[in-house]
Amino acid sequence: MSTTIKAYAALQKGQPLQPFTYEPGPLGSEQVEIKVEYCGICHSDLSMIENEWGFSAYPFVPGHEIVGTIVAVGPAAKRVRVGDRVGLGWNSGSCLACPPCLAGDHNLCTTGEGTIVGRNGGFADRVRCHWVWAAPMPSAVDPGSAGPLLCGGITVFNPLVQFEVRPTQRVGVVGIGGLGHMALQFLNKWGCEVTAFTSSEAKYAEAKGFGAHHAVSSRDSAALRQLAGSLDFILVTANATLDWEALLGALAPRGRLHFVGAVLEPVPVAAFGLIPQQKSISGSPTGSPSVVDRMLAFCARHRIAPTIEMFPLSRVNDALEHLRSGQARYRGVLRNDF
Fold first, then answer.
1. What sections of 41-172 are H helices per DSSP?
2. Phi, psi (rounded to 5 degrees) for 317
3. Looking at domain 154-283, which of 3.20.20.70, 3.30.420.10, 3.40.50.720, 3.30.2000.10 is its CATH number?
4. 3-state secondary structure at position 147
5. Which of 196, 243, 300, 329 has a CA 20 to 30 Å removed from the CA of 77?
6. Within a 13 Å sphere around the CA of 119, how many CA atoms are in the beta-carbon half?
7. Binning pLDDT at 50, 70 and 90, where does residue 2 land?
8. Predicted pLDDT at 264
9. What does the alpha-carbon distance between residue 19 and residue 13 come to, in Å, rounded to a whole number?
10. In sequence order, what E strands does the chain have?
């Protein structure tokens, strides 16, 4: 097997991706090498191409929603073997020794390694990671559509576990896009009564098709206020500025407004909007390896899958432009055609 990895990279900030090769060096003792079959396209890939967060390094190979098969394992790698189909998401390594790692919260490791942060990602024929982050893929999960589960999917599934959302609860999902359409499916199968908040009335029927029981305009403050005190948990997947006072008002006592969408502007909150009924505001990243495993098992059991559009990897720039223009319905996936 050739040691040279073939990929697509942005050579400078904001540039279209072009063919790129690199030598990965020796495989680490606890690393595995994955032959990429499919890789989802996340908005975070665009943000990194444009260096919106200030820590991109060029040449930059995007891709962190990877599905493929193990082709090599280091001598100290565990859990997976050559030939196994696995998934790899935003994280590719963690220290395994800090308090969060020892508590099972590897995704909160303060020195953790991101799959596309300071290293090369999955818009390539192969990619590497620490064995802990190579998630075994259940046979009942379709590999072609599974990539977006490994970043967007786990991002919306993780709060259900972390905050012990119960089947008896009433939950709202703000934003019915790449993240939100998966959140609706999870929550419906979780047993919750689900309300979708969307700025587009044209999405009401789609939202209900994904599992929402109710659909409400996220731009209609009067409609939001009619929900006062009715929801136990609101998951914000959008990055838009909304009527936060009305959304907080829609929470029941002990309710939680939880952010996984990167809202760019500060969220104004008055303390007395939280204190009297013990409401909370929080946020979370992607999930730990054990929660990724739980999510994949849940998807296999309930036949949950993202709605995707497939592109060959050789058309990666067309696929990125499709996402950039807001046309994606709802996640793009690249098929390796090297």
1. 43-49, 99-102, 143-146, 152-162
2. -70, -35
3. 3.40.50.720
4. helix
5. 300
6. 18
7. confident
8. 85
9. 16
10. 5-9, 18-22, 31-41, 66-73, 85-88, 91-93, 113-114, 126-130, 135-136, 170-174, 193-198, 214-217, 231-236, 251-259, 280-283, 308-312, 331-335
CA distance 277 to 299: 35
Residue 299 one-letter amino acid: C
**How long a stretch of residues is the chain?**
338
Amino acid occupying residue 241: T
**b/e burial code for range 304-325 (CB count within 10 A of at least 16 → b):** bbbbbeebebeebeebbebbee
Digit-coded pLDDT (tens) for 183-233: 999 999 999 999 999 998 889 999 999 999 999 999 999 999 999 999 999
Nearest to 191 by CA among 164, 220, 169: 169
Q: How confident is the model at residue 1 (pLDDT cuts 50, 70, 90)?
A: low
Fold of 5-150+306-335: Quinone Oxidoreductase; Chain A, domain 1 (3.90.180)
Residue identified by tokens 């259940």 is 138
pLDDT digits (tens, 9 = 90+) for 126-151: 999 999 999 999 999 999 999 999 99
- 183 token code pair: 């959140």
Rg of the chain over Cα atoms, rounded to whole angstroms, equals 20
Tell me the whole-structure pTM to 2 decimals: 0.97
For the chain, the domains span: 5-150+306-335, 154-283
Which residues does 302 contact at the CB level (< 8 Å), separation at least 6? 185, 189
Which ranges of the chain does DSSP label H, i.e. alpha helix?
A: 43-49, 99-102, 143-146, 152-162, 180-190, 204-210, 221-225, 244-249, 289-302, 316-324
Residue 67, CB-side half-sphere exposure with 13 Å CA sphere? 22
